[in-house]
């Protein structure tokens, strides 16, 4: 039985295969058979490392959520540079242009996965709640710098931006929205709260 690095490599191989299937074919296509075929391994490999398929999916979702940490750090570092609307447009486009939209659909689609996630993630949809936290942190930083109105309610603005952004990108098979459409949505949601200088 593989141990140490070998296990990590198998897990990453399976996670990468799951992401490819989700991006290419959508959540309905992500089955244990499709996964092991895509990963090029025997079905027994999956069951050696995970209790069942929903356990695998839960770990996959949480792994993808933790990968958002670098995005959150980059967005926080952008505070005070560029424009707030431009920074948020870039962050939302990056977020929803990734596997995030398909992961949200996967969580919605599978009751067993939602039940499994509740054990470690008690409220909300992991990808969306983490994204809202990321946006709220950025907006709070901009408010601290005086580029966002002091009365701006970042805890309301952040989930509103995530929800509106998700709706723009939700059609997985359609053409992604143009950056201008995303920025228009961001500007509308922020209203007069943004006080940053325009280029």
TrEMBL record:
This is TetR/AcrR family transcriptional regulator. InterPro entries: Homeodomain-like_sf (IPR009057), HTH-type_TetR-like_transc_reg (IPR050109), HTH_TetR (IPR001647). It holds the Pfam family TetR_N. Keywords: DNA-binding, Transcription, Transcription regulation. Signal peptide: none annotated. It comes from the Bacteria. Residues 8-68 form the HTH tetR-type domain.
